[in-house]
Specification:
Shape: globular
Helix content: 55-70%
Order of helices and strands: HHHHHHHHHH
Number of strands: 0
Largest sheet: none
Distance between the termini: 49 Å
């Protein structure tokens, strides 16, 4: 009879072992997955409450501004049950993503449902009012924030957590580190050198697109009705709308120039003129967090304008294209900004504290 040693390798550590059992870095990060599950099931139950007649339903015909909603003419009784079913289904998928090990449900199904959930929330529930209400936050006018917008933000955060959980699950089942996504086969397009190349193109695109929008607003303020009828321009001039619009466009243009920090040295090391900070490394989160939030907000705003165009919500779009068409290219801005931000992350993340990969 053969004596087994105490340190003999487990059969699970062999070639056929699931990837998550080969390295501690492959073990799941539970908090994100469970946060996604709790957010989605909580909101699904809220939708169920509204479907059963509860007060405070924020979407569709019950929206304070239903003209912006994708469900403008659909009331609570028709819409809430569908939303309840959708969010509860997403909660079930989030639970499967959060639990350790592989699922009997194929991974493409779980990841596909996640992608559909993100598309549905960003394309139908969320809109440009998230971006607009951000100004109220900076002015500390929290009472002016719309109840619908609060629900939009919660829905976006919920599917955002679900996306993070899906990414961790995909990494786990493919043998990558669930923290950084690196594998032993090499970095490829995520390497700092590769990210610097495609990230630079994305950053320049994210700078140009908002300048196209800003140019129309600057033209109106300077007395040129670019893309709008003389009648509309005169109406806006009487109400001083074009000066206000030019001010907002200038803020957006200045913000877009900050995108260059994602590919320039001053985005990594504070420049000399910043007394007290000069020469110090810029914390990556200082650029990544706001850039990611802006990318989501401008993308949802642009999708809303595209949707309203197809719904025929704009008056005389042929002669007043300048008032609405520039906003329809905002999704390009948002996607480019998200790509530039991702490239910045790949360049600056350094060695992974979880798996040790990336150390030089």
């Amino acid at each position: 009879m053969t004596r087994t040693t105490r340190n003999a390798p487990s059969p699970r550590a062999g070639r056929g072992a699931p990837p998550e059992h080969r390295h501690p870095a492959h073990t799941p990060r539970v908090p994100v997955g469970w946060a996604a599950f709790l957010a989605l099931i909580g909101y699904g139950l809220a939708q169920l409450y509204w479907a059963l007649g509860g007060r405070g339903f924020p979407f569709g015909a019950d929206d304070a501004n239903p003209e912006y909603s994708a469900f403008e003419h659909i009331g609570r009784a028709q819409l809430a049950p569908w939303l309840a079913a959708g969010f509860l289904l997403c909660a079930a998928v989030a639970l499967l993503l959060a639990l350790p090990g592989r699922r009997r449900v194929p991974a493409p199904v779980l990841l596909g449902v996640t992608a559909l959930a993100v598309a549905a929330v960003l394309g139908t529930l969320a809109d440009f009012r998230i971006l607009g209400n951000l100004a109220y936050v900076f002015m500390l006018r929290f009472s002016a924030i719309n109840w619908t917008v609060i629900n939009q933000v919660f829905a976006v955060v919920a599917v955002g957590l679900m996306t993070m959980s899906a990414v961790a699950y995909q990494r786990r089942i493919t043998g990558a580190c669930v923290s950084c996504g690196r594998t032993d086969s090499g970095a490829g397009w995520t390497s700092p050198a590769a990210a610097a190349r495609w990230g630079r193109k994305a950053a320049y695109t994210a700078v140009v697109v908002p300048l196209v929008y800003a140019s129309t607003r600057w033209a109106w303020a300077l007395g040129y009705p670019l893309g709008i009828s003389d009648k509309l321009w005169q109406e806006g001039k009487r109400d001083h709308l074009w000066l206000f619009g030019a001010a907002l466009a200038t803020m957006g243009a200045l913000g877009s120039l900050l995108t260059l920090g994602l590919v320039q040295r001053w985005g990594e090391v504070f420049p000399r003129w910043m007394i007290g900070l000069r020469g110090r490394r810029v914390p990556p989160a200082l650029a990544i967090v706001p850039a990611s939030l802006v990318a989501v907000m401008v993308t949802t705003a642009g999708i809303m304008y595209i949707r309203l165009h197809f719904q025929g919500a704009f008056d005389d779009p042929k002669h007043n294209w300048g008032a609405t068409v520039p906003e329809t290219i905002w999704p390009v801005w948002g996607i480019a900004l998200a790509a530039a931000t991702l490239a910045y992350y790949f360049r600056r993340r350094g060695a992974c504290k979880r798996c040790g990969r990336g150390s030089r």
